[in-house]
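Quick one: examine this chain and its backbone structure tokens and tell me how the chain folds. Here goes:
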Amino acid sequence: MHNTAALKLQERPDDVLLATLDRPELANAFDTRTALDLADAFRRIETEPRWRCVVLTGSGDRAFCAGADLKERNSLGEAQWRAQHEVFERMFRSVRDCRVPVIAAVNGAAYAGGLELVLHCDFAYASQTAAFALTEVSLGIIPGGGGTQTLARAIGERRARELILAARPFSAEEALAWGVVNRLCDPGRLLEETLAVAARIAANAPDSVREARHAMRYGLGMDLASGMQLEIAAYNRLIGSEDQREGVRAFNEKRKPKFRGRKVLESEGKG
């Protein structure tokens, strides 16, 4: 993993990767290059079995991400705009489809595509000073990174209609009450608390985490009976795995388990 001009990647202990959008002078807005860098970083996570969780945040305390860089977009023609948006779509998919959990640490304003990034993460913690909005209709467009779908699923259709159609910002307290974020933190402790929960996730069996995420993501789109069948199929795929045996051994031996995951074992030629 290597840093770029707009994206800093830090390898943390406990198999956690910290990704920081690093354009604080532009409220961490993403241009084409930043979107390509973020998509590439998440692509490489797919091939690195040691990473078990990712924390995504922004540089500074002013903004998590203000969405697309409108100064760059001001110079784009129609064809260029569409081509750029395809890059943005790839970036959003890379976060949404990441093989390991992604947690947003929302350190400031998360507007437009910045909020859409938050909504594509597994969950989010936020600073008490954070603010949120999908303001695209005030610019003559609509949310194009999944916002009309993900926000409504997170907080309910009728409330999402108000926020999107009125381009109304909402506070960190509202974000917590409505389920956009899971916890509000003191600004000075946000990253510490987010990295702590990331480390807790990373300590669990990676294949179990992956299967649980799969069951929730796809099962919630089904009726209850079908969702439960999907869950059982995921459960059965773990029976007999090395991590399942290690978990039971560790419990009976009263020690912490040493989970490795199928990808690590396969990389060592043992899978």
